[in-house]
Amino acid sequence: MRSLTILSLALILLASSWAADAPPFAFVDEECDADFTVRATVVVGRWLSARAEARLAFNYQDDKHHYLLRVRRETMELLKVQDGTPTPLCAPVPFKANKDHAVHLSLKRRGAQMTLIVNGVIAARLEDATFSGGKVGVSASGMTLKPDAVRVQPVEPVFFGDDFTRAGRAGEWEELTPNWGFSRPKSSQFDPSATSNPFSYRATGEAHAMTLAGRWFWDNYAFDAAAKANTDGCIGLMVYAQDGYNYILFRWFSKGFNVPQNQAKQLIAVVNGQAQTLDAQPGGFEPGQWYKLTVKVNDDKIVTFIDDEPACRSTKLFFGQGKIGLFSQFCREAQFDDVVVKPWDGSTPVGQGGNLSYSEEPKISADFLREGTMAKWATPAFGWKIEDQYTAWHRDNFYGDAALALRLTNLYTPGVLMLCLHSPTEDFHQGYTWRLQIVPLERSAQWELWRQGTTVAKGKQEWEENSTSIGLTFFRAGQQIIGYFAGQQAFSFTDPAPLTGRRVGFFTNGIPLTFHNLRASSTHLIDETFATAPTRWWQGRGVWTVEPRWPCDERWAWMTGGDAETPILWSKSAFAGDLTVDLFAAIQMDADETPLGYRRPSDINVTICGDGKDLGSGYSFIFSGWRNTQSAILRQGKVVAKSREARILQPTRANNDFHRHWYHLRIVKRKQLLQFYVDDLLVCEYYDEQPLPAGRVAFWTFKNGLVIARARIAYESLAPAEPFPPVLHPSPRAPAAANAPIANSRDGVFHDFEGQLHGWNGQSKNGGSLVSLDSSTASRSRQSLKIQNPISGGDFLAWTTFAPVDLEKNPILRFDYRLPPTVKVNLIVRVNGSYCLITFTGGDQPDDHRPTIGSIPNVVADAQWRTAEINLFHALRSRFPTAPSLTLDGVAFSCPDETYLRCGIGGNYWGSVFHIDNFQVAPALPPSRREGDAPAEPSVWQEPHPPAEPTGGLRRR
After folding, report:
1. In angstroms, rounded to a whole number, what is the distance separating the alpha carbons of residues 791 and 483?
2. Is the backbone of residue 307 left (phi > 0), alpha (psi -120 to 50) or beta?
């Protein structure tokens, strides 16, 4: 009772002091919308009397009905004035003026929610819906608050996007640092309209880089951007940015940067230039890869995502509103692209980074649409099989929930339209079918919804008299079948047992309809033209960027993989169950100076069910492989079906059927059946009684540049995916030392690896190896030489050079080895300045510029220590019959050339390791072997050869 009495007395005193000597309100011109923000600055002065105050009224109806923000000497409070009586809406808020004796205020009204921000910090949040509309007024006594210092800002949900196609103009961006610019394809005839993705925004230099966009009053938004750092360093996104000294930053450090890896992901608040960590999580990024970064923020929380996977989060908030920004530091170069800002009310589950349900329509340049050679993949008719002038069915299998969207542009012609989803066959009576009878004179459509031919809903829709077009959307969302007509929901039908068919089709009779106004999409479809940054893909090998396809006409540019012997582009997602992959691709022209134009036209390849490391882990579909002699399906490195008919014909620049052609590879995995089509012809097929489990998709080539125009993956379901393997970096190399001579020979070589590498090196432009001393295993002593493959495939090269050795005096090459069965390497020796090959475990290869002089006998690759020995002098004498002497000055281990081992198929997988020890070139003395070792038959892997007869033939789909 006493507390009620005190509260009542306080309210009476508040009301009595309220009207006394309060100057009247002066009103600003703008009125209050449904959602708005009021920004004001109160100058409190150095000395204030106890009666000094400033008042800001909002949603003002009259003197007795409004909300009020009341600022006094050290506190402020939010009040509701109703029937002339003020009621506190929250506890008093203490504050301190800044050095200019000013207090910066923002009052946000979003529906019933109000947020008070004082000097950039959220001070109070509350809900009240008593008043709406009205005016904003100010008054002050002993303080300064004038109407012209008050801004009333109407606000709407934030929608903003920038793909940086404005050709070198920063547009909306305010560059806080000078190190920003634009990157574009390297082309002497660069044409943005003929390029799939012409620009990205770039920061250069290791100093921090910041740029802002947006408005000071933006709030409650989700901010996405694609980001890539080409070197070690830090990249990030800024939200609620006030300036370069006040912002919230989600920053991400690379794996190789000098920061604790359990803090590689950081969410920080920077207030007046001082950083405060709100959250930190482990896991750095890999330089050279594109990622999708997301920050979602509202008045309750901040959540961040990387590739739609949760990263950092916090409920400690700052600023309450502000701009977005891009950030990098310590990177010599960082790139950003595809900025999108959308409203976010906090309702999206924290575990979901994206809001997209159905596949987005890919961006395609208008120049691609007009070019006849690109029509098959670029035009809206792509994917549709037109049966007659009335009926069309989509070629794809639509897994998950399917949707059809179209726009009717002729509302004066009567007719019938049918849209069909989830039919098991090309039959409108087997799926969900929305049948519409268009009646122009009545400006209406009579409609029925069928489920397997049975009407489950019907009705009538009308359109406005002045309408020139009508949009229709027909889709399934779980158990709901929903239709929209002219922006209004026509029906929502619940099916407790949803149909599982995968076909989508439409029928029209009397109603003009073009594919430009029709779109089919799915929740289980990736449709990629690489017009945006490739954040859904991982560069397994090589550099993947937008480059010209033809050096003779550099205007045209698409996503291209090059700068490697085997460029590989992996999907970040893994897929389970049935799968369809469509790839439109070509070989990059690489010999403009020659009449043919192409050095090695072959190998447009796809792998499915892969592990993200090795192509040999899944099914590989090789088109025009083995130097353009055949095509085949491989299962984990073994040929299971092939065709010698399917290959590139007349691959020269003079043949436009090849030179300007886009090859369409279509891979269909349905239960245990795998089918391989090229340009709608069935190349071969394979029935696998034990199909491989889920995995990733890869696009790749061999000794070419692969140009991709469009790729589509329709999948039954997603599967868990292991992280991609880390980039392997060499250990610090020991200083080179002179070779130690063996006993009784001043010309021989002996490498025992007891404390030094003896000059062994793994550097190579085609992968190479990591060489190091290993004390965990040795043939006889304490250490051996460890040779590790840093990639999948490659040349797996490890080499050394030394002073010339006279092979007549030192004819024996001998070394101990420890090899697993999956390591496939041969030896290369340099004799009299020429390179010769000795077969070890890598098998035969073509005698191009490295003739084979023999094989090491009795090789056993069983991961146990063994000894290899060959008489080099005898093996080489027939090769150099007239040479006065034979001198050896270099030896290397290397994977055979011109085999798919170089691609990681059949062996030499990512991270493969073998060891050598006691390497010597010595006189013909009996070799020393460990007790118990016995000669064994060679275990030599052979390049997979397809069956003698082709499996399957060429037939049109």
Report:
1. 50
2. left
Q: What is the mean pLDDT of the chain?
A: 88
Rounded alpha-carbon distances, angstroms, from residue 206 to 234, 290, 331, 542, 574: 10, 19, 5, 25, 35
Distance separating alpha carbons of residues 916 and 797, to the nearest angstrom: 14
Residue 188 pLDDT level (bands cut at 50, 70, 90): confident
Indicate the helix (H) or strand (E) that contains 369.
helix 366-370
Structure tokens at 249: 């930053």
pLDDT surpassing 70 at residue 940: no
pTM of the complete model: 0.90
Q: Write down the pLDDT at residue 411.
A: 84
Confidence bin at 169 (pLDDT 50/70/90): low
Neighbours of 76 (CB within 10 A): 23
Of 409, 412, 415, 455, give the one whose Cα is nearest residue 432.
Answer: 455
pLDDT digit string, tens, across residues 223-247: 999 999 999 999 999 999 999 999 9
What is each CA distance from 812 to 514, 626, 921, in whole angstroms? 77, 36, 6
CA nearest 57: which of 47, 71, 43?
71
SS3 string, 274-314, reads EEEEEEEECCCECCCCCEEEEEEECCCCEEEEECCEEEEEE
For the stretch 194-231, what's the b/e string if a residue is b when 16 or more beta carbons lie within 10 angstroms of its beta carbon? bbbbbbbbbbbbeebbbbbbbbbbbbbbbbbbbbbbbe
Q: How many CA atoms lie within 13 A of 550 on its CB side?
A: 16
Looking at the DSSP bridge assignments, the partners of residue 56 are 69, 138
AA letter at 559: M
Across the strands, what pairs with 664? 584
Query: Tell me, what's the pLDDT at 235?
Result: 98
